[in-house]
Amino acid sequence: MIKKLSLVSLFTLLPASFYFAQTTVFAYLKDAEGKPVEKAEVDLKGSENDVTADKIGYFQFVDLQPGHYQIVITKPNYETKVMEFDVANEKRKDLGAITLYSALTSADQGLAIIDSDGDDEDSNSGQASTVGLLQSSQDIFSRIAAFDLGFYWFRPRGIDGRMGETMLNGISMVKSDNGNVDFGNWGGLNEITRYPEISSNHSPSEYAFGGNSSVVYKNTKASEYRKGFQFTQSLTNRNYRNRTSLRYSSGMSKSGWAFTVMGARRWAEEGIQDGTFYDAYGTYLGIEKKFSDKHSMTFNFIGAPYRRSTSSPSTQEVYDYRGVHYNSYWGYQDGEQRSERVRKGFQPIFQIQDFWKINKKSSLWTSVSYQFGKDKGSRLDWQNVQNPSPTYYRNLPSYYDSLDPNASVTNPDGTTTTAQDAYRTALAAWQSGDTSVTQLDWDKLYRRNMQQAPGTYYGQTGKRALYYMVNDVSDDKIWNAATHFIHNFTDTTKFLLNVSYQNYYSEQYREVNDLLGADFVLNRDPFAATNQPGKSGLFNEGEDNVAKRVGDKMGYDYIFRRQEVKVNPGVKFSTGKFDVFVSAMAGYSSSNREGLFKHYLYQDSYGKGADYNYWNYGLKGQVIYKLNGRNFFVYNGAYYSQAPYLEDLFVNPRVNGSVAPGVKNMVVNANDLSYVISSPFLKLRLTGYLVDTDNETTVQRFFADGLPLNGVDADGNQTNVQSAFVSQIMTDVKKRNMGLELGVDVKVLPTLSLQGLASIGQYTYKNDPMTYFASDAVGAFANGLPYASLGKAYITDYRQGGTPQQAFSLGFRYNNPKYWWVGANWNYFDQNYLDPAALVRTESFVQNDNTHTPYSGLTESELRRVLQPNMLPSSFFLNANAGKSWVIGKYYVLISATVNNILDNRKYITGGFEQTRNAKYPTFSQDLDREFTLFAPKYWYTQGRSYFVNLQFRF
User: Fold this and answer.
1) Which residues of 112-151 are buried (b: 16+ CB within 10 A; e: fewer)?
2) Which residues form the signal peptide (predicted)?
3) Which residues contact 282 (CB under 8 A, 6 or more apart)?
4) Is residue 418 part of a domain?
5) What are 680-714's pLDDT values in tens digits?
6) Are 814 and 852 in contact, with CB atoms under 8 Å apart?
7) Residue 63 belongs to what domain range?
8) Conformational region of residue 73, where left means phi above 0, alpha means psi within -120 to 50, and beta covers everything else
9) In terms of pLDDT, which residue wins out, 68 or 568?
10) Could you report how far apart the first and last alpha carbons of the chain are, in Å?
11) Which residues contact 306 (CB under 8 A, 6 or more apart)?
12) Lowest mean pLDDT segment, chosen from 200-209, 422-431, 615-624, 769-778
């Protein structure tokens, strides 16, 4: 039988009223065991006629006119249920028995997880983006993956978070420069943004075409929040320690106005990682005006200023000395902790949304959004001196151990000793935690700058900075407009149309943050005299002032622009036992770069470059076959193209306008097939999936030794550079992600459920992509281009990195009728890898530059040994949560607690990367075979046992 009811997100179509016959609509509320649910609130959206279910769970609305309606059913300790229905010319309409399920793992008990915008996101953007999925969901697999596995950086199906779509009030929040979503833009506002609609993986969505990592749609209408105040206080030992928030909602007044306002703060003087701090605010203002039952408008302001420090990855050697909470980015200055890596920013969002019920079959939502502001990330920089980082390889015990024990070395204080003695001294300092060695010595950096004799440089006299602080700044201005149109041909056939436009403008530059006691810093390349003799070395030739002071721009300055239009029509219909949803997409984007600095090495560094235009197309489909009311087969398929993001399009936008060679639209072909059981006693989803990705382009930057960097100097003579920062570009990268997913929830007692998850995947590279490199130390190569080819990177069948490829979970949930609950989960992760570094898997790695043949004695077995995949250790964890709620008259109190990693497992590596400083086989293998590898992979570790305690009070 065709169902007229469909579950949707908390915020969807407005109801319409039409002045014809009047109808009484009624239903009965029951729990999962079929028992009546009394005193649940039933809100008829767009109306003041809210009702409360009686002792047998019965409720009704009378005198409803023909039209389309939505109700929201809420009760403490139960999941919020949203339903839509249509009223025709009928006297009574029976909605039947409506089941409310326990809210055991609802967002009320998982607020902490959604707030995971911590340190790791800065270097693991693909992983961090999965935070967008950490919301309550009806699907058992998705729920466990989010709340229990997501804390450990598990990514379903191994899909990069950049492949998804996150929308706020109809507007895409994906940044055009790198494809990431900055969840910090609404950080701390959990109670405002916590009820999204999610179209998981590559299934089609009503609101956007999306990608293959879910569409998450959030709406923040002022009238949708519970009337009154809600206060929340949280304590945790994660990146922040405290969270306080207060929300007030007025409800819809008789004159048609509704207001919601919220403020939140999260802070920590020192987080769980050594030397980190956190200070972030969140503000929200929502105003809604209801003009009629057919028309309303909303205004939303969201602002979340923040300032916080981040933590470093390290080699295993460093972690062995100092533990997994070690952070190399801080040190003492005048006895106070100071971090060199501080992120701060404020990019507020202003949005206006119009809701218009055109007639009883059609509705139109229109959204306009503007976001602006700066995001700054500080770092320590230096010129003509050694890297001052305590984890720089020359400052670690392993470096002295790699030398001849009797070799003479210079101590930091200028005295000399043997390498053997230096090793013993360094080892003792690291093992004992001597902060003058293991952390930055800010006082020493100041002394070194201030002890210089004044000099005259480019017409300026003073002490130039050897060490100094800079900010890397993104100054964004983003306009968005979007429409969402729905037309219901019949009760079973719906047409959807989404049209969106984005105008992205971002000036990205470096500015002087702190001169550390010096008078100015020079805006020039300190290595130019060696690498490019005869050239100016200036980062901005022709400027009047090369000596830069605090607040001045230096290093680079350019503008990214991108305009993009997407059209997304879709059709949903039911016929017989089939429900079908087909969604299509056509898009066009135009991107360019404008340089504001004239770099001494690149002719195309200054001025506006060419426009790079891409057309995108796509098709998604979902077919649900209903065996009966509780057993289903579900197929989801997607085939679409996606234009490269700006940072993937340009090789090195900080200094030139060159694009990656052979860059194309990425093409994704994704398919999955599921068997689903949904009953009061058993929920199960078994899925097989296959996702192929072609034509992907990746760009990475790092330091490398041993590459044949042959450039051209000012007189046209060939130059040779052996060590430099390089950009590595891979084009036409092909990937395959396939596997099985199983999620099970069995209700063994009315109050007790057993839950389990299994995710068995295989995520590999399918080809050997072409690899290129570019370097600021070279500029144009002998071929006249700013990049050179290294040939193919032989990475076929290597595993992709970034997430465990196998994950298992088993747990229970007990929900007592007296409104308290307890639950626990055992979680296991395996088959986690680091991404293979392409540079050391090219022919250049094994090629002798003198003979242009492979190195003598190098065998295939030896090559396999040194280049074997970096597989990370498997781990298991125990999580638990508990809570209790009370309803006292008009007041509601909730206290809940979550403890993750109860056994304090500190051996789990959440991510990392291979260092490719040695780009030739002889030096690479020599380093690999040392007792302490100098350039071993760098890792991020799990932070050990963590807790989150949450108190909520509604009044």
Assistant:
1) bbbbbbbbbbebbbbbbbbbbbbbbbebbbbbbbbbbbbb
2) 1-21
3) 186, 187, 188, 189, 245, 262, 263, 264, 265, 266, 302, 303, 304
4) no
5) 889 999 999 999 999 999 988 877 665 656 554 44
6) no
7) 23-99
8) beta
9) 568
10) 44
11) 184, 187, 279, 280, 281, 343, 344, 345, 346
12) 769-778
Mapped onto helix, strand or coil, the DSSP state of residue 147 is helix
Residue 851 belongs to what H/E stretch?
Answer: none
Kind and range of the H or E run holding 821: strand 820-830
Beta strand extents in 334-398 (DSSP E only): 336-339, 342-346, 349-357, 362-382
Would you say residue 697 lies in a domain?
Answer: yes
Condensed to tens digits (0 to 9), the pLDDT of residues 630-661 reads: 899 999 999 999 999 999 999 899 999 999 88
Q: What are phi and psi of 522, to 5 degrees?
A: -90, 135
What gap in Å lies between CA 434 and CA 331, rounded to an integer? 11
CB burial readout 533-553, b (16+ within 10 A) else e: eebebbbbbeeeebbbbeeeb
What are the strands, taking DSSP E only, across 274-424? 278-292, 295-303, 306-309, 330-333, 336-339, 342-346, 349-357, 362-382, 408-410, 416-418
CATH number for the domain spanning 617: value is: 2.40.170.20
Structure tokens at 51: 């009702």
Q: Residue 360, SS3? A: coil
Give the closest residue to 129 by CA, choosing from 39, 25, 49, 211: 211
Virtual torsion, Cα 701, 705, 707, 711, nearest 10 deg: 80
- Quick check: 424 and 432 in contact, CB under 8 A? no
DSSP 770: E
In a domain, 268, yes or no: yes
Q: Where are the alpha helices (DSSP H) in 442-498?
A: 442-450
**Which of 75, 99, 123 is at the close of a domain?**
99
Q: How many CB atoms lie within 10 A of CB 868?
A: 10
State the Cα–Cα distance between residues 599 and 831, nearest whole angstrom: 45
Total Cβ atoms within 10 A of residue 528: 19
Dihedral sign for Cα atoms in the order 204, 208, 211, 213: negative
Higher pLDDT, 930 or 372: 372
Q: What is the pLDDT of residue 134?
A: 31
The C-alpha atoms of residue 476 and residue 561 are separated, in whole angstroms, by: 10
Token output for 747:
């209700």
CA-CA-CA-CA torsion for 116, 119, 120, 121, nearest 10 degrees? Answer: 70
pLDDT tens digits, one per residue of 298-352: 999 999 999 999 999 999 999 999 999 999 999 999 999 999 999 999 999 999 9
Q: Are 139 and 133 in contact (CB under 8 A)?
A: no
Among 84, 99, 114, identify where a domain stops: 99
Q: Which CATH number characterizes residue 38's domain?
A: 2.60.40.1120
pLDDT at 46: 63
CA 777 to CA 724: how far, in whole Å?
6
Q: What is the pLDDT of residues 796-847, one digit of tens each?
A: 999 999 899 999 999 999 988 888 899 999 999 999 999 999 989 998 899 8
Q: Which residues pair with 410 in a beta bridge?
A: 416
Does 457 fall in a domain? no
Rg (CA), the chain: 30
The two tokens of residue 259 are 């207001």
pTM, two decimals, is: 0.85
Smallest CA-to-CA distance from 311 within 947, 940, 907, 946 is with 940
Q: Distance between CA atoms of 79 and 630, rounded to whole angstroms?
A: 20
Cα distance between residue 791 and residue 843, in whole Å: 7
User: Token digits for 929?
Assistant: 């075979």
Identity (one letter) of the amino acid at 647? Answer: E
Q: Specify whether the CB–CB gap between 554 and 740 falls below 8 A.
A: no
768 φ, ψ (degrees, to nearest 5): -110, 95
